[in-house]
Design brief:
Helices cover about 50% and strands about 15% of the residues. By secondary structure, the protein is α+β, with helices and mostly antiparallel strands. The strands form three sheets. Strands 4, 5, 6, 7 and 8 form a five-stranded antiparallel sheet that branches. A three-stranded antiparallel sheet has the order 2-1-10. Helix 1 crosses helix 2 and helix 8 crosses helix 12. The protein is elongated.
Length: about 350
């Protein structure tokens, strides 16, 4: 499992101008979430390179912090700031991350981790290509790196050292073998058992939406029942899934009508008692009688009665390995962070 790619991190740094403008070389812009339209936002943070934390004497600045905040919530760059309700938690998460990065880097230095020159050279070339043109890269060097390409190489080396430390202590140790996944599968059979369920379609006849069901007149109740009886008559004449579905689209008054009345697999425990009683006595491909709930009526077509079954290991192997590996990775990363913090002097400014 890879650590954050250096190019992404340094690109974020390149975007931190006085007004937090989005540079012309920003990659892979993401669409704006609908919730951003109405969410109050704080003004874009200003960068002054003031300290925000010290880790064993090494100073981390607001530039480092803002870079990580943008990595956590990239929409802020594009849409004028962070949501006010979330900014504090985003800031705290970013602060924890840059402290962790610095701890990893210092541990890498202590262990004499080295990065081959050719790996640094390749990473630098990859980074330069993200700008599109040599002129844009030179502009970046001038504005963000005081015109000194050695500063870029230093950041590349630092990032690759962090990545190597994380891979050594977390990524390489979080592998989950097929045997590990199989052992988990056999120990937790309940997770891989599909319960009894029913594939059904429905047609529903409901009271008028603008009328309180408790205040229906006798005549209104009679009219609803009459429409339900007619719907049942038509449903009984349908020959298959398609016929019933087209009828549902035409006359049903529940939300499933837009999908040919289909509910797919409904668990036994999720069916109302009256509906369960009927489907248990139906054969697949048949239409049941009216089910009345207060003044609403439903007609069910049973397409399949699925008995409890267990998914095979081969069916779940790949997603299960990925799930277990992710859990193991996060536990190892958290444990590593605690170990490094326990022997460090950390001051939040």
């Amino acid at each position: 499992m890879k650590y954050k790619v250096f190019v992404c991190a340094i690109l974020m740094t390149a975007l931190l101008g006085a007004n937090a403008q989005v540079a012309s070389h920003t990659q892979n812009a993401m669409p704006k979430p609908a919730s951003m339209n109405a969410t109050p936002k704080s003004p874009p943070p200003q960068v002054s390179d003031k300290p925000v934390a010290k880790v064993n004497g090494a100073v981390l600045t607001d530039r480092d912090l803002l870079r990580e905040m943008y990595a956590i919530f990239p929409y802020a760059q594009q849409h004028g700031g962070f949501p006010k309700a979330e900014e504090a938690s985003i800031r705290q998460g970013a602060l924890e991350m840059i402290i962790f990065e610095e701890l990893l880097y210092q541990e890498a230095v202590r262990r004499n981790v080295t990065i081959p020159p050719q790996q640094i050279k390749k990473a630098e070339a990859d980074f330069q290509r993200t700008f599109g043109t040599a002129d844009k890269y030179q502009e970046f060097l001038k504005v963000e790196m005081q015109g000194n390409p050695d500063l870029v190489r230093q950041k590349i080396r630092r990032s690759l050292m962090i990545e190597q430390m994380l891979n050594t202590e977390v990524g390489n140790k979080s592998t989950v073998s097929v045997a590990d996944a199989k052992a988990y599968y056999e120990k937790h059979p309940e997770r891989f058992t599909q319960p009894e369920s029913f594939n059904i379609q429905t047609i529903s006849i409901l009271p008028p939406r603008n009328v309180d069901p408790q205040k229906l007149t006798a005549q209104q109740k009679s009219e609803i029942k009459k429409r339900a009886d007619e719907a049942l008559r038509q449903a009984k004449t349908t020959k298959d899934y398609q016929d019933f579905g087209l009828l549902a689209e035409k006359i049903s008054e529940d939300d499933f009508r837009v999908n040919m009345g289909e509910h797919r697999a409904v668990k036994r425990d999720d069916l109302p008692p009256d509906a369960l009683k009927i489907v248990l006595n139906m054969k697949p491909g048949t239409v049941g009688d009216l089910i009345q709930v207060q003044n609403a009526y439903t007609i069910i077509r049973l397409n399949a009665h699925n008995q409890p079954s267990k998914l095979s290991f081969e069916q779940v192997r790949r997603p299960l390995q990925e799930e277990l590996q992710k859990e193991k990775y996060e536990k190892l990363r958290s444990s590593l962070a605690k170990q490094l913090r326990a022997k460090a002097k950390i001051e939040v400014v």
